[in-house]
Amino acid sequence: MIIIGELINASRKAIKAAIEAGDAAAIQQVAKDQAEAGADYIDVNAGIFVGQEPEYLKWLVETVQQVTDKPCAIDSPDPSAIEAALAAHRGTPMINSISLEKDRYDKLMPIIAGTQMKVIALCMSDDGMPQTVDDRMKIADTLVNGLVKNDIPVENIFVDPLVQPVSVDKAFGTGFINAIERIVAAFPGIHTACGLSNISYGLPARKFMNQTFMTMAIAKGLDGAIINPLDKKMMANIIAAEALAGRDNFCMNYLKAFRAGMFEG
Amino acid sequence: MATQDIFNAVIAFDEETVKARTQAELDGGTDIGTILNDGLISAMDEVGERFSAGELFVPEMLMAAQAMKAGLKILKPHLSAGQSKSKGVVVIGTVKGDLHDIGKNLVSMMMEGAGFEVVDLGVDVDSEKFVKTAAEKSADVIALSALLTTTMPSMESTVKAVKEAGMTTRTIIGGAPVTQSFADQIGADGYSADAPGAVKLVKQLVG
Predict the structure, then answer these.
(1) Chain B residues with CB-CB distance to A11 below 8 A
(2) Nearest CA-CA distance, residue A248 and chain B, Å
């Protein structure tokens, strides 16, 4: 599982305060903690700072990469913010995210075309949120083909079929996981990724829902997740689910995690 | 009091009983306004209270609204012009650039449940359309929704456009990244953190 650590997001109060105060140490601590907990990418988001997003996003990338070799997931729909962040980035970053919304698509494609960057392709279009598996497949097909035509290898694309809350429509859970299954089958070599906490919106005991949904999505082929890697139960759950889904040779990751104490408590 | 049975059935999300009791009250000659206000609408007020208190959850609010609507459907053909007059007109939509409509749909549903006429413009609505529709419908309130930090500026431009058009229509805003201080900053007339709160707010503004 490719883990994208979601914690450095300015919509969280502590991160907002750290950015405003220029508190590099606070940001670096969160970056280190996530890297040590198993994050493969450190997501950086400064979206709440209208007008200052490019400056802050660049600072986040520099600050994070001073303490970890992990690449960043640059989390913005704004081309000028992404370009500012890319100018500071070492290694191969992930762009979070392109979608089929025309404005966003047209502005981000020239930045990623022909590069080796990873990119999250969010199944959203100007027609609104996809409801069914077919809606999602239609958007995924256009997006993936568009990206491949712009010389982005299919292996670098992470399709996010878009999670919607099961509290408002009982078909939204299966709509998502069945889309994962079909995307993985339709585009060999492709990855999928998502932030899945939206599944439990409007319900109590959300962590429980989120963990169970993660297990179900992994069973269908999900191999990327935008999560809090410091959530030990979620991380343990992912490792067990991957072993059960046949993606852990000789259960080596599972056993390693056991010896590291991940299943205790 | 038998309208209490209707009230109780809505609170219990029991659509069949709501229908049966509403029909029975109607046949028995109970005042239609009483059935509507004391039975159906006040039940949705109670559901809203319990939701805001964290006792009920989104699926339960949806089921209650569905039960309430089933009762309303039975009453509608019998409502006189005065009785069917809405409590006010609310134009609602997600702002330009924002396609996330779940929160907006919940607000829209609760507004209807409270007896307001709701004109739902859907998603990605530009300020011209809000202004034009509000003028056409003589709206009392324009309700703006945004889920993304990146679309919050569209709220500001819409609130501004309403004022520049010289309209008296009040503007309210809501959505995950939105706060009361943002509402104050852009000059919106109100903010609510959830759907029942938005209904209360509109009642205050219209009343």
Answers:
(1) 149, 177
(2) 37
